[in-house]
Amino acid sequence: QVQLVESGGGLVQAGGSLRLSCAASGGTFTSYAMGWFRQAPGKEREFVAGISRVRGTYYTDSVKDRFIISRDNVKRTVDLQMNSLKPEDTGVYYCAADYRASVATVGIFSSEYAYWGRGTQVTVSS
């Protein structure tokens, strides 16, 4: 069993930056691919970024060249550095862990992730 706790959300103006962090406890962290998803009001949860067990990364098109996902296997954390934020980046951001992924795989569907944090709110004002 893995417990995930997100932090770092907040209110920022368009063009600004935020760094989200997800701390994992329980389980074998190096065995999980990790992902960040977000959900805007009235919309479905969507994939934002993921990192494989060997640190391969994958991003949804709308955040490429703006967001960077990274993991620290010693600290058991996965971070999401968000730059050049836009109002459309607003939403609740969730950290998730996929224990079924192969070594180099990053899942992009929420159904692939077994463990979820409670989320952290990100609001980008125009």
Plain-language structure description:
With 126 residues, this protein is mainly β. It has strands at residues 3-7, 10-13, 18-25, 33-39, 46-51, 57-59, 67-72, 77-82, 91-98, 115-116, 120-125. The strands form 2 sheets. Strands 2, 4, 5, 6, 9, 10 and 11 form a 7-stranded mixed β-sheet that branches. Strands 1-3-8-7 form a 4-stranded antiparallel β-sheet, with no helix packed on it. The model has no long low-confidence stretch (mean pLDDT 96).
What's the helix-strand series?
EEEEEEEEEEE
**How would a textbook summarize the main sheet?**
7 strands, mixed
Relative helix content? under 10%
Q: Residue-averaged pLDDT, rounded?
A: 96
Low-confidence segments: none
Q: In one word, what is the shape?
A: globular
How many angstroms does the end-to-end distance come to?
A: 40 Å
State the total count of DSSP E strands.
11
Strand content: over 45%
Structural Rg: 13 Å
Separate helix tally: 0
Determine the structural class based on helices, strands and strand pairing.
mainly beta
